[in-house]
Design goal:
The chain is an all-alpha fold and 243 residues long. It has one domain. The chain is 76% helix and 2% strand. The protein has a two-stranded parallel ribbon with strand order 1-2. The longest helix is centred in the middle third of the chain and has 35 residues. The radius of gyration is 21 Å and the shape is flat. The two termini are 38 Å apart.
Length: 243
Amino acid sequence: MATEPSILTTGLFGQIEVIRRRVFRLAMTLLAMTVAAYPFATHLLHFIKQPLPGPLTIYAPLEGFLGHLKVSLAAGIILTSPLILYELKRFLQTVCRFPSRSAWIGTGVAAGLFGMGVSFCYLVILPVTLRFLLGFGGDNIAAGISVSKYLSLTLGLAAACGVMFELPLVTRILHRLDLISIAFLAGNRRYAILLSAVVTAILTPTPDAYTMSMLLVPLIALYEISIIVLRIVEYRQPQLEED
C-alpha cells in the first residue's frame, strides 16, 4: 500500500499536491458527516436552544431548513474532528518537529482545550449574555428571535471560545520554535491586552461591549496561564534531559 509522501520531502508542487489531497479528504469527510447528522438536526437545535428563555421564530420560508443545515454542519465539523486532529498531529510532528509522543499529547490537548472553550461558552457566557441582552426589552417588549440570528450568535460564540482556549497550546508551539520567549510575553503584557481587545472585537459575533468583555477577561487569564505553563516547561526541561 502506497503511503502519502511527507510534506517536507517533496518539492513545491509536491507540497501543494499533498496539501490538496489532505484538504479534499477533509472536505469529503465533512460533507459525509454533515449529511449523516442532518436527521438529528431537530434534537441538536433543541439542545442549542436551551439557554434561550422562549421559542425561536422563523421569519422566512427557508429559515427553518437553513437553520437545520447550519446545525448539521456544526455537528459535521465535530464528527470530522478526529481526522482534523490527526492532521494536526502530523503537522506538529513534521513541520514543528515535535516527537511522535509530544505530537499526540499536543493533539489531545488541542481537543481538550477546544472542548473546554465550547463548554465554557454554553454554560457561562451564553446564558449571561442572553440574560443581559434580552433584559433591555423589559416587560413591555416581546422578544422574537429568529433561528438564523440565534444560531449565528451561539455557534459564533462557541467557535470563538474554542479558538480562544487554544492560546496556551499556540504559545507552547511558538516557544518550542524559538519564536517567542517568556521574557517577551511577560514584558509585553500591555500590548497583549490591547491585542486581546482587538481580537475579541473581531471574534465577538455581536457589537455590544458586554459580550466582548465576557470574552476579553478569559482571554487575558489564558495569556497569564500560558506564561505559567511555559515557566513550568522550562523548569522541567533540564530534569527531562537528565533522565
